[in-house]
């Protein structure tokens, strides 16, 4: 089922998610719906609070450079290690048409549960590492606009002003 993606400044985006205690039908359904929504919205990743759930879950397309998406669910993710820094442009489905240059760790180690109730440790870098940091932030109520440097602040301000004046926000 396709879910509506919450747009800033919806209050859900500032809420901290709660850990998934048990992999129930609700969680499986949520993950299914999130993956469907991510693909339809042509997003690269999606966090639960972007679709109105407060579980600590995000989904990500692990093959962004290929034609066939290979989506994976990260449940109760926890970043264990971060190394290096890199600045790249990123976007967010909750901020249509806003792209910001954000400084993130280059390489990360993360622990998360998968849909088979296994706790796995992943090590990754580049685009995937960036997306994982962005999504883990979402689960803590942190948004990419919180990370901008001076040079990008003006862009964010203009964007937020345009939201206020258009009256289109929900
Ligand atoms: Zn986002």
Protein architecture, described:
28% of the residues lie in helices and 29% in strands. The chain has a single domain, classed as Peptide deformylase (Peptide Deformylase, Alpha-Beta Complex). It has 170 residues and is α+β, with helices and mostly antiparallel strands. A five-stranded antiparallel beta sheet has the order 1-2-3-4-5. A hairpin with a 5-residue loop joins strand 4 and strand 5. Bound molecules: zinc ion. Zinc ion binds next to helix 2.
What is the secondary structure topology, with strand pairs?
Layout: H1 25-40, E1 45-47, E2 57-61, E3 71-90, E4 100-113, E5 119-125, H2 126-139, H3 150-166
The protein binds zinc ion.
Low-confidence spans: pLDDT under 50, at least 5 residues? none
Distance between the termini: 21 Å
| Total DSSP helices | 3
Strand order of the largest sheet: 1-2-3-4-5
What is the level-2 CATH architecture name? Alpha-Beta Complex
How would you sum up the global shape?
globular
For this structure, what is the CATH homologous superfamily? Peptide deformylase
Bound molecules: zinc ion
**CATH topology term:** Peptide Deformylase
Written as H for each helix and E for each strand, in order along the chain, the element string is HEEEEEHH
On the 0 to 100 scale, the average pLDDT is 94
Helix content: 25-40%
Level-1 CATH class name: Alpha Beta
Oligomer: single chain
User: How large is the share of residues in beta strands?
Assistant: 25-35%
Structural class: alpha+beta
Number of β-strand runs: 5
């Amino acid at each position: 089922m396709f879910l509506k993606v919450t747009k800033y400044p919806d209050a859900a985006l500032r809420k901290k998610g709660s850990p998934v205690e048990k992999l129930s039908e609700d969680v499986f359904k949520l993950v299914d719906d999130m993956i469907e929504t991510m693909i339809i919205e042509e997003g690269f990743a999606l966090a639960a609070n972007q679709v109105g759930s407060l579980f600590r879950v995000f989904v990500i397309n692990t093959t962004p450079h290929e034609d066939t998406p290979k989506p994976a669910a990260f449940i109760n993710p926890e970043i264990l290690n971060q190394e290096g820094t890199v600045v790249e442009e990123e976007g967010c489905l909750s901020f249509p048409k806003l792209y910001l240059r954000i400084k993130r760790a280059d390489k990360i180690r993360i622990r998360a549960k998968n849909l088979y109730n296994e706790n796995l440790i992943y090590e990754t870098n580049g685009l995937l590492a960036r997306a994982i940091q962005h999504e883990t932030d979402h689960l803590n109520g942190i948004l990419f606009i919180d990370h901008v440097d001076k040079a990008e602040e003006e862009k964010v301000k203009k964007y937020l002003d345009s939201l206020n004046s258009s009256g289109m926000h929900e």
